[in-house]
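User: I'm preparing a small set of examples for a lab meeting where we compare how different chains pack in three dimensions. I only have the primary sequence for this one, and I'd like the structure in token form so I can line it up with the others. Please keep the answer compact; I'll paste it straight into my notes.
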Amino acid sequence: MSSSTTAPAQSPIADAAPLSLCAREPLVPADRLVAEMVPPPRFDSVRFETYIPDPGQSSQTEAVRVLSEFAAGLGGAHASGSGKRRWFAKKPAAPTGPRGVYLDGGYGVGKTHLLASLWHATPAAPEQKAFGTFVELTNLVGALGFQQTVRTLGEHRLLCIDEFELDDPGDTVLVSTLLGKLVDAGVALAATSNTLPGKLGEGRFASADFLREIQGLSAHFRPLRIDGEDYRHRGLPEAPAPFSDELVTKAAYATPGASLDDFPHLLDHLARVHPSRYGALTDDLKAVCLTDVQPVPDQSTALRLVVLADRLYDREIPVLASGLPFDQLFSEEMLNGGYRKKYFRAISRLTALARDAKRLVPA
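Assistant: Understood. Below is the structure token output for the 363-residue chain.
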């Protein structure tokens, strides 16, 4: 006997259930880490011509000029002499002076824009140029091993390092040795930071004990100061106030490709995922929705959140949140400590992404 009973229709909201960052534990092979050492999507189309200097900051105009000349000077054969030479040809003279430029300035003055523009302007094939954050560089060493990293990057003409920071003595020795090897191989260097190379590590560890390594790093770079205010807030409205849990949840369900996570649970999950995989954690996301944003409880958690904020900003992924506003994420002690510049950068970038997320909320 046939039955007239039919299965209940599936709820439309179930069909549109958002993703969860906490459910993701991506594995990233080493070759992907190398292949992805290019300017992130946000900076894929930037050029020196699209950088708009602040009329009141002559250092910004000067930076464009210096970096344009630096890029033009990187044309021709690899400085290490790659390509065959005739046996009677003279060995090229070793370059004199710093083999790199170091962009020093506050957050939001366009340093990453300029660094990516340098990468694009350098007359070399993409596989001869590498671009990554300082964290991504140290992660690459961890994935490939030191010697293989030297061999891989030593074939490049240019290495661009964004957000150059030294968080511990081990990183100081590692990076000092690595960059020395790459300079010897003829690789040109360019880096951005909020700290002059001679001041790296201050407030974080006993940098005086590692002064030789820090001075060695400094010798590789010509410092280029870039003054100005954070362009992300220049002439723009204040960051939007956080929304309610209900609105954030509704927006997550209504936005294809959005994720939805409870903020404290996300912080716990980040502790179980290596920061080198935070980029992969955000693969294919169109928006990140967070409920119950609270103050970050400790320094280790805060530094992991900084890395995630960088990856979200690089990929232009809007962040919609409830709870506390992003400028209350970090305690006064954190904002006055050795990592304060990282925390201010994270606040600046998350604020920009919160503005982008306003369009996800129905008017």
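A couple of notes for your slides: The two ends are 53 Å apart (CA to CA). The beta strands are 100-104, 129-133, 158-162, 188-193, 222-225, 258-262, 287-293, 319-323.

User: Perfect, thanks.
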